[in-house]
Amino acid sequence: MKINTSFIKGAFFEINEDVNQKKRFQVEFINKDTNRVETVLEIDNHSWAKASKSYLVNWKIIVRGLDHDFYYEYDFDCTGKRLLVDFDTKLVGDTLAWMPYLERLSIEKQCTVVCSTFHNSLFQDQYPNLEFVEPGSTVHNLYAQYSLGFFRDNDKWDPYKHPENPFHQPLQKVASDLLGLEYKEYKPRLALNPNVQKKKQVCIAIHGSMKTKNWNNPSGWQEVTDYLTQQGFKVLIVSKEENGFRDLQDPTGTERHPEGSLQELIKVLEESQFFIGVSSGLSWLAWAANLPTVIISGFTDSYVEPNSVHRIINRNVCHGCFGTHILPKNSGDDWCPEHKGTERHFECSTTITSTQVIEKIDLILKMLPTTQSQPSGKDIGV
Predict the structure, then answer these.
(1) What is the pTM of this model?
(2) What is the pLDDT of residues 92-118, one digit of tens each?
(3) CA-closest candidate to residue 130, choices 161, 99, 156
(4) What is the spatial distance between Cα 198 and Cα 180, in angstroms, rounded to a whole number?
(5) CA angle, 203 as apex, 199 and 209 as ends, to 5°?
(6) 82-87 and 112-116: which strand pairing?
(7) What's the CA gap between 252 and 250, in Å, rounded?
């Protein structure tokens, strides 16, 4: 009799017995933390069974013979084993948010974590205890494998791939949930220069991955740029999108950072005094680079991004659709689930004023002479 048990994207049990007579088995997959039987299947002696949930669960597998005397029990234990965690996303923000939890996984479970991301070069030297492989690589001798991402079942979140609705969680908690870890905000480690020389410049990122994420106040960025230049700051656009993309013109008086590697961008961020952006990966990058970070967003609610950023949101209008509506596939850049085509289209960001942003800038400016570390963030709302 040959038995194979593994945890590759879900608990798996297989039995092969070299006999002509068919035998029947009942396989139970039990969550030991809740003592709940998650999946029960019946198989014969040349079959396999797999639990319905693919995220990390503290499993117990119990197999009983239904028409003969057989009993098998196996407890999940990855101590000293190899686990592969692959990132089902190319987005910089998601990758930055989730990377610290791979280190937590290796420490708490005392296992070897193999990591597959689309941005390995950012982290390989900073996480020497992790093993990095390129996406799609074949990895041998694995005990378990898990995927990090936002997984949907049509227009709903997939409860077999997430223990909780990921759209109602902080972005970092998506990873802790999928890897069975306690949620705590961790900042990812980047290759930073401890002796960086600061310049009198501010980085801004005016684009998100869709227009819904932008600050859609038509005069907002220009008014903020005018204020910064009046204070003597060079204003550097670090968004890679070209001028005029999605009808958004670069504010007059700004300069563009030439598109290059993320590590080159990190250097520019380090040299800056602070950063202003929207709900995007560049905001996560600025935060990870220890830059005082202002996020202007109504698309996401404040709980999505780090607690330690300076957040500007208008809670008196429709907001937070990232958490209340699942973005449909092929939804278009101007997705607005409640008010598209009406006067309230994008009111979550159009009603955020430059005055609110300038108030936050003034607060940061007061703190800069005494410290370059990131101050505690607070919402500015109306």
Answers:
(1) 0.90
(2) 999 999 999 999 999 999 999 999 999
(3) 99
(4) 40
(5) 160
(6) parallel
(7) 6
Per-residue tokens: 177: 């949930």
Neighbours of 71 (CB within 10 A): 8
25, 44 contact by CB (below 8 A): yes
Say which residues have a Cβ less than 8 Å from residue 156's Cβ, sequence separation at least 6: 326
Q: Three-state SS across 266-324?
A: HHHHHHCCEEEECCCHHHHHHHHCCCCEEEECCCCCCCCCCCCCEEECCCCCCCCHHHH
Dist CA 357 CA 71 (whole Å): 65
Q: pLDDT (tens digit, 9 = 90+) per residue, 57-100? A: 999 999 999 998 899 999 999 999 999 999 999 999 999 999 99
Counting Cβ atoms within 10 Å, is residue 120 exposed (0-12), middle (13-18) or buried (19+)? middle
DSSP 168: G
Cβ–Cβ < 8 Å for 77, 34: no
Domains present along the chain, CATH in parentheses: 2-75 (2.60.40), 82-178 (no CATH), 201-380 (3.40.50.2000)
